[in-house]
Amino acid sequence: QVQLVESGGGSVRTGDSLTLSCVLSGGTFTTYAMGWFRQGPGEEREFVAAVAWSGRNQYYAESLKDRFIISRDNAKNTCFLQMNSLKQDDTAVYFCAATGLGDYDGGAHYRRSRNYDYWGQGIQVTVSS
Question: For 40-69, how does the pLDDT look when each residue is reduced to its tens digit (9 = 90+)?
């Protein structure tokens, strides 16, 4: 059974950087595109970024593309989310997710949480001034 485990969260200051990691076990990592979502207090879960199985194509929420970088290391079954110039509005629980859907049509389907097959438990990121 596929399991996803996030790590790297914590409390940081405005302007800091933080990198989240997500390790997939119980499945073939290259079978899946990987995504990151987040859910702030009292808010709905929102798309952050996704990366196709090869790592060649990345997709971002428009508002985050200048500060966040998604990547993957297929040899280590790990996906990363590098977050730079963090703001208080970035405070949220961050979720890693895996989908078996292929990379086509500009990756629009990666932005929808319902298209993901597996989810991590989430990890807290808190940004304070």
Answer: 999 999 999 999 999 999 999 999 999 999
First to last CA, the chain: 41
CB distance 124 to 9 below 8 Å: yes
| Count of C-beta atoms within a 10 Å radius of residue 35 | 28
- Beta strand 10-13 pairing with 123-128: parallel
Residue 118 corresponds to which tokens in the numbers above? Answer: 């597996």
Q: Alpha carbon of 103 to those of 33, 34, 47, 81, 120: distances in Å?
A: 8, 11, 16, 19, 21
Interior CA angle at 96 toward 83 and 49, to 5°? 50
74 backbone φψ class: left, alpha, beta (φ>0; ψ -120 to 50): alpha
Half-sphere exposure of 91 toward its Cβ, with a 13 Å CA cutoff? 12
